[in-house]
From TrEMBL:
Record-given protein name: Chemokine-like factor
Keyword tRNA-binding: no
The species this protein was found in: Macaca mulatta
Domain MARVEL residues, every copy: 13-134
Tree of life domain: Eukaryota
Subcellular location: Membrane
Main location as per UniProt: membrane
This protein's UniProt keywords: Membrane, Transmembrane, Transmembrane helix
InterPro entries: Marvel, MARVEL-CKLF_proteins
GO cellular component, one term: membrane
Membrane topology qualifier: Multi-pass membrane protein
Coiled coil stretches, renumbered: none
Gene encoding the protein: CKLF
Transmembrane segments: 21-39, 45-65, 77-100, 106-129
Amino acid sequence: MANVQPKIKHRPFCFSVKGHVKMLRLALTVTSMTLFIIAQAPEPYIVITGFEVTVILFFILLYILRLDRLMKWLFWPLLDLTNSIITAVFLSVVAILAMQEKERRHLFYVGGSLCLTAVIVCCIDAFVVTKMMRTNLKRFLGIEFESKLSPAKDAYPETGPDAPQRPA
């Protein structure tokens, strides 16, 4: 009998966890950039957030159009991970500097707070990307792994449909 690999069901990017995290990053960064523009922040704040918006849009379009599947000569998850780390560093610097202006310019402070939130979302994005990379590596190497869909099943074995019957 031939060794049959299980089919991997493809989920569209917009409905995946990775897609939701990227869209949240985009929304936070665009809102932060808009608040920096309204608050008349110094140009480096606007330029850094604008550049991050452009890069996030690039990755979203790349994944929506599935160009990562066509251009296999680049390892896109590693580029995505590198982008998440660099974005987190830049936006954390912007957030720290912007949040020092709490007393004088409130919109500037709110923009910094949104940058800090975007940093947290970048870290979540990096975690999602590395988890996908680890899963794909295990699948490639043929290592058996078990994915738990519900941790509650293991925590409370006596309450599920497979629970042992109690004597009356």
